[in-house]
């Protein structure tokens, strides 16, 4: 089956974290690691502090992400890092080295924060070759685009929607509707692939879109355990 076959989807939407990319980002742990990289040795208990500070300012983070202004977003993280250091009685002069360390840990040559799953690229290559249009719909911030680019996946997709930039996140059907509008396709012409039963599967259903559930931890009935099985779900031999 190809995108031109009766009943076949013309486009495939992919979730990112847990589907295409193994995201190992956890803010408290990440903050401690970047502090250590910058030359600070903080107690593990301090991780709870930055977690709490972020929760207090999450709405602010969402607002600045929605502006798509890189300078504003970076200013948010700089200020949050400074607030954390001050709360821990540390020198705020470490903010610069910590932000540099954060970027290196995410997207440096040896970065392991966002790691592509080995079955992702072969699957995308096959679908692209068969004529399917591909896009990403993910609950993520602006770093989604960098994570895709860093892992060599960005070239497969027409676009990638990061929820914090769009102002709506799965399972809200609005983010799927944004994707449909960008593609210029109907709900019947698109299928969504993701690992989260609520965000991806229920979210797609709420938007009237068919879905494929990816369960990398032991597929349940009706799901697939690897993206290598996705072409078969789309009727490709």
Description:
The structure is a single chain. With 237 residues, the protein is α/β, with parallel strands linked by helices. It folds into two domains: 11-24 and 115-233, Rossmann fold (3-Layer(aba) Sandwich), CATH 3.40.50; 27-107. It contains eleven helices and eight strands. It has helices at 27-37, 46-56, 58-67, 70-87, 95-107, 120-129, 143-150, 163-166, 173-183, 197-206, 230-233; strands spanning 11-14, 21-23, 114-116, 133-138, 160-162, 190-194, 210-214, 223-224. It has a six-stranded parallel sheet with strand order 5-4-1-6-7-8, with helices on both faces. It has a two-stranded antiparallel sheet with strand order 2-3. α2 (46-56) packs across α4 and α3 runs antiparallel to α4 (70-87). The mean pLDDT is 95.
SSE inventory with pairings:
Layout: E1 11-14, E2 21-23, H1 27-37, H2 46-56, H3 58-67, H4 70-87, H5 95-107, E3 114-116, H6 120-129, E4 133-138, H7 143-150, E5 160-162, H8 163-166, H9 173-183, E6 190-194, H10 197-206, E7 210-214, E8 223-224, H11 230-233
Parallel strand pairs: 1-4, 1-6, 4-5, 6-7, 7-8
Antiparallel strand pairs: 2-3
Task: Describe the structure in brief.
This protein has about 240 residues and is of the alpha/beta class. The chain has helices at about 25-35, 45-55, 60-65, 70-85, 95-105, 120-130, 145-150, 165, 175-185, 195-205, 230-235; strands at about 10-15, 20-25, 115, 135-140, 160, 190-195, 210-215, 225.
Main sheet record: 6 strands, parallel
- Total beta strands: 8
Query: Cα-atom Rg, whole angstroms?
Result: 19 Å
Total domain count: 2
Strand order of the largest sheet: 5-4-1-6-7-8
Low-confidence stretches: none
User: Which CATH architecture of the largest domain is right?
Assistant: 3-Layer(aba) Sandwich
Strand content: 5-15%
Order of helices and strands: EEHHHHHEHEHEHHEHEEH
- The coarse silhouette is elongated
Q: Which homologous superfamily in CATH is the superfamily of the largest domain?
A: HAD superfamily/HAD-like
């Amino acid at each position: 089956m190809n995108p031109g076959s009766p009943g076949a989807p013309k486009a495939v939407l992919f979730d990112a974290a847990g589907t295409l990319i193994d995201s190992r980002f956890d803010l408290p742990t990440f903050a401690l690691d970047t502090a250590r990289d910058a030359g600070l040795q903080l107690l593990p208990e301090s991780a709870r502090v930055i977690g709490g500070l972020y929760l207090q300012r999450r709405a602010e983070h969402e607002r600045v992400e929605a502006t798509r202004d890189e300078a504003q977003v970076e200013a948010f993280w700089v200020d949050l890092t400074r607030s954390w250091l001050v709360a821990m009685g540390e020198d705020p002069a470490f903010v610069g080295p910590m932000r540099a360390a954060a970027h290196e840990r995410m997207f440096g040559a040896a970065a392991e924060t966002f790691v592509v799953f080995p079955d992702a690229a072969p699957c995308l290559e096959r679908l692209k070759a068969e004529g399917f249009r591909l896009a990403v719909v993910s609950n993520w911030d602006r770093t989604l685009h960098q994570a895709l680019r860093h892992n060599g996946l960005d070239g497969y997709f027409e676009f990638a929607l990061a929820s914090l930039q769009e102002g709506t996140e799965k399972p809200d059907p609005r983010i799927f509707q944004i994707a449909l509008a960008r593609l210029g396709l109907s709900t019947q012409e698109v299928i969504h692939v993701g690992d989260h039963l609520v965000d991806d599967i229920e979210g797609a259903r709420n938007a009237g879109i068919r879905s494929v559930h990816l369960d990398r931890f032991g597929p349940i009935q009706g799901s697939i355990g690897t993206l290598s099985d996705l072409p078969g779900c789309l009727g490709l031999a």
